[in-house]
Amino acid sequence: MKLREGDAWMPADDYGRSLNGLGINLLVADMTRALAFQTDVLAAEIVYADPDFAVLRGYGAEWMLHADHTYNDHPLSGSLTSELVRGIGVEIRLHQCDPDDAESRARAADYTVLAGAMDKPHGLREVYLVDPDGYVWVADVPLPKVP
Questions:
Q1: What's the confidence (pLDDT) of residue 15?
Q2: Percent of the chain beyond pLDDT 70?
Q3: Which of 33, 48, 132, 137 sits a CA distance of 20 to 30 A from 106?
Q4: Are 9 and 24 a contacting pair, CB within 8 Å?
Q5: Dihedral through CA 15, CA 49, CA 67, CA 138, nearest 10?
Q6: Which residues form the domain of 16?
Q7: What is the pLDDT of residue 72?
Q8: What is the distance, to the nearest Å, from the Cα of residue 63 to the centroid of all Cα atoms in its chain?
Q9: What does R_g of the chain's alpha carbons equal in angstroms?
Q10: 114 part of a folded domain
Q11: Residue 136 forms beta bridges with which residues?
Q12: % helix / strand / coil in the chain, to the nearest 5?
């Protein structure tokens, strides 16, 4: 079921053919709430958004959001119950997204900070944030190399 009225920003098959590399598509229960996290906390740019679908861009990456209701006839539709937690075991990393800034924005907007910004032995400063749909986003920047 689509909620969008009018024409899409581009034909779906044109957009599909434009994709390459690794793609991330997240299913979201509430598009407005999901977009708020993406823009307010992660400082992502909205390329396109309607009640059914959104494309976001930031830090050299592009990803998609699909509203749950668009997956009614999809093989994953059975996994969209409130009893199942989404995103377990997956970290969605945004490299070059300042973890301290992202943490500050997340806390100000009352989002869950799973682990605050800290320097890690693998050479990154990172923060673990949970979005409204339960996906874990890791914002990170490289630490200066110590001689």
A1: 64
A2: 78
A3: 48
A4: no
A5: 90
A6: 12-142
A7: 63
A8: 7
A9: 16
A10: yes
A11: 91, 130
A12: 25, 35, 40
Residue 64 lies in a domain: yes
CATH of the domain at 35: 3.10.180.10
4 within a domain of the structure (yes/no): no
What are the angstrom distances between the C-alpha of 40 and each of 27, 104, 111, 130? 19, 10, 11, 13
Residues in the chain: 147
In contact, 36 and 49? CB cutoff 8 Å: no
Whole-number pLDDT of residue 98: 96
80 contacts 96 by C-beta, under 8 angstroms = no
CA distance 128 to 73: 33
Residue 5 maps to a domain: no
Count of structural domains within the chain: 1
Three-state secondary structure call for residue 3 = coil
